[in-house]
Design a protein that fits this description.
The protein is mostly beta strands and 118 residues long. The chain is 10% helix and 35% strand. The chain contains one helix and eight strands; from the N terminus they run E-E-E-E-E-E-E-E-H. The relative contact order is 0.25.
Length: 118
């Protein structure tokens, strides 16, 4: 599945994030493996996550944010805005019905960028 990666070492981009499936069914729930795209595993081996909902023009967009944040991780220029410093990487995935992760579509990228800038 595609996610939006806010990396300390590269420009903003969409990357494929591996997932594990509960079973072989096409409708099985997928479990993302964000450790594969976030850097700093030696310094911080665990990944934080949270869910965020953005409301725009009567529509609710739901996202899951996976991130590493530690004072010894490199500064992330994409997320260090408004005087606050963010150290570490973040990956944003879109949530569909039932809190299942799904592929990001065209408008989702712009909304995710807006959300992460806040």
């Amino acid at each position: 599945l595609r996610c939006r990666l806010y990396s300390t070492s590269a420009k903003l981009r969409q990357v494929a994030i591996p997932t594990r499936c509960a079973n072989s069914s096409r409708k099985a729930q997928r479990f993302p493996v964000p450790e594969s795209v976030l850097q700093g595993a030696c310094l911080q081996p665990y990944v934080h996550n949270c869910q965020v909902t953005v409301h725009e023009a009567g529509h609710a967009y739901r996202f899951c944010i996976f991130f590493k944040r530690h004072r010894h991780l490199p500064l992330n220029p994409a997320l260090s805005v408004g005087g606050s410093l963010f150290r570490g990487d973040a990956a944003v995935m879109r949530l569909g019905e039932g809190s299942r992760v799904v592929n990001m579509r065209g408008r989702d990228v712009a909304i995710a960028d807006f959300m992460m800038a806040q």
